[in-house]
């Protein structure tokens, strides 16, 4: 019983054999997070209790072995999310950094809630809520994570010889630190060759936590981690902790319905970097449909505007698009073309008031990428003639070259920025 006393998680009740609460049962005010935020618009409707089906899928995700591939001669690390979370968490606490909670985020959380939801479950995205008041904490978190990797090296490797810098070079795919007025977080992404990177995110504050309702889910792992630490019995339908999910979109039930029925909805897409445009087209190609056909026209314009604000330069757009295709369609060559055609349609219909030259340039870029995709797949034997079909517009110097976005400094969330300009 020491375990109970030592941990602050007694709030989460083990509802052994008392009949599980079904998913979607409105939740009483039991989450510590919720109590803090009562009075804010994100109220208890944004939380829900997972049913057994969902909890068992979560258990699978947490206990599945994920290989972390090392560069060069470094051995592959065989980790489970459960082990990496427990190790990082306890080492952070030893280092004096309190972890408020740990969550599974994004597509992995979506997969736990609705199996085969059409979004795919690629990245394994974990959020640790911690305070990062100064640079020192950022450093400490980074060092703790790198040192935790030592625990996963195979037997027989001389750990004394391996420094954090070496571990970083061997296993870390991405290191990101964001430190602005509204956002304070860091990301350490561990490499997996098949794109199933384990993304460890340490979040003090972050303003925008989702793009669309269907990717707005987070699952709070603390109760289950506590169960793993304390229970001598395996998890089962009759013995499992209460696990809580949250939708950052705001209304859990609504977002859950969108996920089940493949519906697209979002709020203020102009707040999303890149406007969510690429993700939106991705949802469309996966047969997701807008919840509201009228509203989506307005939203599409906001998405496009923000996209052009963030990536005003044609080369940047090209890089962004190529990276997106590589990361999201690696094993779905056939959808690439459809994706680009959808994106082209959205850009064509939604940027009517953007300068003609800029718009044509982007449309041509998308067409050319689409052609390249077809040629790569040998669907067209020779791209030469098909290029003519799209007839790239001749370079027209636009007399009305009202380049309203380039003049602005990099866009930050807090300042108002131009969105779609109405015609005349
Ligand atoms: C969680 O995942 C969503 C969807 O992938 C993403 O938009 C969001 O930024 C993630 N949240 C955090 C805190 O990383
Ligand atoms: C682009 O939009 C215009 C009008 O909005 C439409 O007439 C044209 O057919 C569209 N072209 C493509 C390729 O979607
Ligand atoms: C493609 O066709 C054009 C003209 O039809 C020809 O000049 C060119 O050599 C062809 N390219 C390939 C790779 O077959
Ligand atoms: C391209 O078009 C020309 C003229 O229509 C035709 O003669 C030629 O065979 C075409 N080339 C290919 C590779 O289809």
| Ligand set | 2-acetamido-2-deoxy-beta-D-glucopyranose
Q: Pick out the low-confidence regions.
A: 1-39, 385-424
Residues in helix, %: 40-55%
Strand order of the largest sheet: 1-10-9-4-5-8-7-6
What share of residues are in beta strands? Answer: 5-15%
Kindly name the structural category.
alpha+beta
Give the radius of gyration: 24 Å
What is the terminal-to-terminal distance? Answer: 71 Å
What letter string, H or E per element, gives the SSE order?
Answer: HHEHEEHEHEHHEEEEHEHEHEHHHHH
Say how many strands there are.
12
As an assembly, this protein is single chain
Provide the residue-averaged pLDDT. Answer: 80
User: So what's the overall shape?
Assistant: globular
Largest sheet: number of strands, sense, barrel closure: 8 strands, mixed
Q: Number of helix segments?
A: 15
Task: Describe the secondary structure blueprint for this structure.
Blueprint: H1 2-6, H2 32-36, E1 47-49, H3 52-63, E2 65-68, E3 77-80, H4 81-94, E4 101-105, H5 106-113, E5 124-129, H6 135-148, H7 164-171, E6 172-179, E7 184-190, E8 198-205, E9 217-220, H8 222-230, E10 244-247, H9 252-261, E11 263-264, H10 277-285, E12 289-290, H11 293-310, H12 314-328, H13 333-350, H14 356-376, H15 383-390
Parallel strand pairs: 5-8, 11-12
Antiparallel strand pairs: 1-10, 2-3, 4-5, 4-9, 6-7, 7-8, 9-10
Helix pairs in contact: 3-5, 4-6, 10-13, 11-13, 12-14, 13-14, 14-15
The structure holds 2-acetamido-2-deoxy-beta-D-glucopyranose (4 copies).
One 2-acetamido-2-deoxy-beta-D-glucopyranose binds at residues 345, 348-349.
Keywords: Cytoplasm, Cytoskeleton, Nucleotidyltransferase, Nucleus, RNA-binding, Signal, Transferase
EC number: 2.7.7.19
Catalytic activity: RNA(n) + ATP = RNA(n)-3'-adenine ribonucleotide + diphosphate
